[in-house]
Amino acid sequence: MNSNAGIYRHPGKRILDLVTIVLASPVLVPLLAIVALVVRLSLGAPVLFRQERLGLEGRPFLIKKFRTMTDARDNNGNILPDSKRLTATGRFLRATSLDELPELIDVLRGEMSLVGPRPLYTHYRDRYTLEQFRRHEVKPGITGWAQINGRNLSSWEQRFELDVWYADNYSLMFDLKILALTLWKVLRQEGISEEGHATKSDFMGTTEIAESKKEHLSY
């Protein structure tokens, strides 16, 4: 943790989250309502997508997003790949990051922050190295340092390095810089998806973990 963060860690970062949401609420509330209506008309109910993700210190929580995919399945009842379930409306919501708006509820609940490492799947827990897992030393964020430095175009290793660096170096001015750059990135619609994937390929672990497991099995 960055010792220079001082009061910004407790309670300054939380105050920034709440004050920003309150000040932006005249715009955010109507926008949430409009997007919810669009999702309801195009995809039906439920409007929100909920999924368990890893939060602060690796504790699981339910993240909330607007739905961007259908529940389409193949003839055997298996869920189709993301690329086949992602609708035109869903692509637009992801390109503009409007699908992330319900995460503001998670911020208000104190489970997320406006800025921090993106919350990832719970089944990634055992795939991190000890160093990579340090990304959970801060609350996950709607946007983050890795998001404005490649987003889904970066490799997982690069992304985690940026997340850990953020956990060690965040500050008030740094968070304000990330928020400002996020708006610019959203307008330019950069790094939305990895080539060949609807968003990003699954994180399968690192060579370090694979070698460690192989060594363990040899005894």
Any overview of this molecule?
With 219 residues, the protein is mainly α. The protein has one domain. Helix content is 44%, strand content 9%. The chain has helices spanning 12-43, 82-85, 88-95, 103-108, 130-133, 156-169, 172-188, 207-217, and strands spanning 48-54, 60-66, 113-115, 141-143. The strands form two sheets. A two-stranded antiparallel ribbon has the order 1-2. Strands 3-4 form a two-stranded parallel sheet. The radius of gyration is 18 Å and the shape is globular. The termini are far apart.
- Given the structure, what is the number of helices? 8
Q: For the CA atoms, what is the radius of gyration?
A: 18 Å
Fraction in beta strands: 5-15%
- Give the strand tally: 4
Poorly predicted runs are 212-219
Order of helices and strands: HEEHHHEHEHHH
In this structure, how is the largest beta sheet organized? 2 strands, antiparallel
| Adjacency order of strands in the biggest sheet | 1-2
Number of discrete domains:
1
Question: What is the distance, rounded to the nearest whole angstrom, between the alpha carbons of the first and last residues?
Answer: 37 Å
The computed structural class is mainly alpha
Characterize the overall form: globular
Mean pLDDT: 87
Fraction of residues in helices?
Answer: 40-55%
List descriptors.
two-stranded parallel ribbon; 8 helices; two-stranded antiparallel ribbon; mainly alpha; 219 residues
Summarize the structure.
It contains eight helices and four strands, in the order αββαααβαβααα. It is mostly helical. Mean pLDDT is 87; it is low at 212-219.
